[in-house]
Amino acid sequence: MLEKRDEVEEILSKMFPNLDKSKFNTVQESDPSGESFSESVAFIFDSGERIEAACNDWEENYRIKNNFQEGLHIMIDSKEIMSWFKDR
Question: Rounded CA gap, 84 and 88, in Å?
Fold first, then answer.
């Protein structure tokens, strides 16, 4: 999964060479075991909008119990997109 996220990061870096980029790892607070996490890279536009590529890795028992999926996620956070989804 992380290899694919790194590929996406490389593509986005070429597409948006002047954007600030932030990498971060977070523990999924919803998992009481503390063994589920997300590794992300976000490209931040001057407008405050962003594109994020993230890999979620859930602790196996927690993943099965909650029917969660692991894998690569691409998120585009903008006012227009959020408004569009809200209106659907």
Answer: 7
User: Burial of 39 by CB count in 10 Å (0-12 exposed, 13-18 middle, 19+ buried)?
Assistant: middle
Q: What is the pLDDT of residues 23-35, one digit of tens each?
A: 999 999 999 999 9
Q: Over 90: is that where the pLDDT of 50 sits?
A: no
Q: Give Cβ neighbours of residue 35 (< 8 Å, ≥ 6 apart).
A: 59, 62
CA distance 50 to 79: 10
Whole-angstrom Cα distance, residue 83 to residue 12? 24
